[in-house]
């Protein structure tokens, strides 16, 4: 990467690389940049500290839904139980920053509002605000690395049900959990059936509330002990924690690959295996009614219940489950389509999130607004028409987010090195003119993942195309193919300093 705009724009800070987001992906990016050739970089985070999801989500029982041997970083061994609490994860992430000398690169309370690519100078021009007083700032960077995740945390998704305003109790969305809330002796209804609901129900039941989980449709659950036998054995043998961490990563990803292939080949058998595991806790009739989804396993993410805590709560009578649809709210609870009513003092809407592709900043190229849904995405991380920009996004189903964040970090370092070697000031991907992208391919890299929050966001997502270069693959494919990407030819287009682009190429549709 060549060019330095600081001399041309006095008072405007310029960085070689700007990372947006200080969660798992942003920390992985900072670590990679700190280990590569010396570059000026910073990590901007809109909230007041590192951690992203794990700083924002403070609801009772919040925990990982992935094992920490693969959700943790390759460079920092995990020493605890496979499933960790939100507080444990936040502490781990803070240690990763401190132990590797990354803290000086992180800036908290910096929010980007606009990002405009300038072809004349080959830089991104960024505007936003910083600090509690929202002081405006402007800066430039040569390369923009978006690590903000795909949830719009500031606004969770809560459907509008009839007569919600008439409810005399409290309605809470988990990401905005109020401090000091006491639920002892309260009647609580948790709306939802995913990982958040499965976490909240046993946690709140343990606080003395009676909790009803109200779901529109069932979800698959994976019951597992919160321990890993191999990890325990290797620790007993007093192996180095880094060696244990590496072995467990390999073992878990190997087992996940084998299991995923089993599910794909024998979906009904996999379904029955998951359901049979519940028979120690519930009668078969309840399993059939409340825990037997109409879709195959892993078309949506399977919720983890460490030590069967959700089912312990149901079996004890502290929690119950209802499968029904909401007709309307009443002053004292919820009326259901079946005619049944649920009394409630507190309703918690564990109904998911809104999705965003590149955060809430407005993007433009040479002053022309960019419509992300009109771009095509290269391996889910680069976009046609957006030079010098990479997005870090993790896996959506079985594999941990961090595995792809680290693959993406290695890819970015290689891409920056290729730009340096060729003397290029910019790089972008272009869909070959011979490839036609059908309009229905919008978001097709996510299929057959059918989670409701993804389906709601499908129309705002970029398009994908035929072949692995234009698809979002699984970890077991990408752990070999990602490091082997040839960066010297198509679809990568490199341009020298200050060289104007020929114009935005439209995406052919049919």
What would you note in describing this structure?
With 510 residues, the chain is an alpha/beta fold. It has 13 helices and 25 strands. Strands 1, 2, 3, 4, 5, 6, 19, 20 and 23 form a nine-stranded mixed beta sheet that branches. Strands 8-17-9-10-13 form a five-stranded parallel beta sheet. The protein starts with 12 loop residues before the first strand and ends in a 15-residue tail after the last strand.
The proportion of residues forming helix, as a percent range, comes to 25-40%
SS-derived structural category: alpha/beta
> What is the arithmetic mean of pLDDT?
88
Q: First CA to last CA: what distance? A: 37 Å
Residue fraction in strands: 15-25%
The tally of helices reads 13
Low-confidence stretches: 2-8, 437-450, 453-457, 499-510
- What form results from the Cα inertia axes? globular
What is the CA-atom radius of gyration, in angstroms?
24 Å
Q: Total number of β-strand segments?
A: 25
Label this structure with key terms.
510 residues, alpha/beta, nine-stranded mixed sheet, five-stranded parallel sheet, 13 helices, 25 strands, 23% strand, globular, disordered N terminus
Short structural description:
This protein is of the alpha/beta class. The protein has helices at 24-35, 53-56, 68-71, 86-99, 195-205, 229-236, 241-265, 267-276, 284-290, 309-316, 401-422, 452-456, 475-481; strands at 13-20, 41-45, 106-108, 110-118, 123-130, 135-146, 151-156, 170-172, 187-191, 210-215, 221-224, 303-306, 319-323, 326-330, 333-336, 341-343, 346-349, 353-355, 362-365, 368-369, 377-378, 382-383, 389-391, 426-429, 492-495. The strands form seven sheets. Strands 1, 2, 3, 4, 5, 6, 19, 20 and 23 form a nine-stranded mixed sheet that branches. The protein has a five-stranded parallel sheet with strand order 8-17-9-10-13. Strands 14-15-16 form a three-stranded antiparallel sheet, with no helix packed on it.
């Amino acid at each position: 990467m060549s060019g330095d705009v600081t001399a041309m724009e006095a008072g405007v800070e310029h960085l070689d690389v700007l990372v947006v987001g200080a969660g798992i992906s942003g920390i992985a990016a900072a670590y990679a940049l700190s280990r590569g050739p010396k570059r000026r970089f910073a990590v901007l985070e809109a909230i007041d500290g590192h951690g992203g999801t794990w700083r924002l989500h403070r609801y009772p029982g919040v925990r990982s839904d992935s094992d920490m041997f693969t959700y943790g970083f390759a460079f920092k061994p995990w020493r605890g139980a496979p499933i960790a609490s939100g507080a444990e994860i936040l502490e781990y992430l803070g240690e990763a920053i401190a132990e590797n000398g990354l803290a000086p690169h992180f800036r908290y309370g910096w929010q980007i509002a606009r990002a405009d690519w300038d072809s004349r100078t080959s830089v991104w021009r960024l505007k936003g605000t910083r600090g509690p007083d929202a002081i405006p700032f402007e800066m430039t960077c040569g390369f923009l690395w978006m690590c903000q995740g795909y949830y719009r945390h500031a606004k969770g998704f809560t459907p509008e049900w009839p007569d919600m305003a008439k409810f005399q109790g409290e309605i809470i969305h988990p990401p905005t959990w109020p401090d000091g809330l006491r639920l002892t002796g309260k009647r609580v209804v948790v709306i939802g059936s995913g990982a958040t609901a499965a976490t909240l129900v046993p946690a709140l039941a343990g606080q003395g509330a009676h909790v009803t989980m109200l779901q529109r449709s069932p979800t698959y659950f994976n019951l597992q002990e919160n321990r890993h036998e191999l990890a325990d054995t290797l620790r007993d043998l007093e192996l180095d924690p880094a060696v244990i961490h590496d072995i467990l990563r390999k073992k878990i990803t190997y087992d996940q690959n084998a299991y995923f292939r089993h599910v794909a080949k024998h979906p009904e058998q996999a379904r029955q295996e998951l359901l049979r595991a519940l028979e120690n806790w519930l009668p078969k009739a309840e399993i059939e009614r409340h825990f037997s989804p109409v879709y195959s396993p892993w078309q949506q993410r399977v919720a983890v219940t460490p030590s069967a805590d959700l089912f312990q709560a149901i079996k004890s009578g502290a929690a119950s489950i209802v499968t029904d649809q909401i007709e309307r709210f009443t002053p004292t609870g919820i009326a259901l389509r079946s005619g049944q009513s649920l009394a409630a003092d507190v309703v918690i809407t564990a109904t998911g999130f809104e999705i965003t592709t590149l955060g809430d900043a407005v993007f433009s190229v040479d002053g022309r607004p960019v419509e992300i849904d009109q771009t095509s995405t290269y391996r889910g991380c680069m976009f046609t028409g957006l030079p010098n920009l990479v997005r870090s996004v993790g896996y959506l189903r079985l594999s941990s987010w961090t595995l792809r964040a680290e693959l993406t970090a290695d890819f970015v370092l290689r891409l920056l090195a290729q730009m340096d070697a060729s003397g290029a000031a910019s790089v972008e991907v272009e869909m070959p003119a011979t490839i036609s992208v059908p309009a229905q391919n919008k978001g097709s890299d996510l299929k057959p993942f059918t989670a409701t929050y993804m389906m709601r966001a499908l129309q705002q997502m970029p398009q994908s195309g035929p072949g692995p270069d234009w698809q979002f693959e699984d970890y077991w494919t990408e752990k070999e193919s990602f490091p082997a990407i040839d960066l010297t030819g198509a679809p990568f287009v490199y341009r020298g300093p200050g060289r104007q682009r020929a114009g935005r190429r439209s995406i052919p549709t049919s």
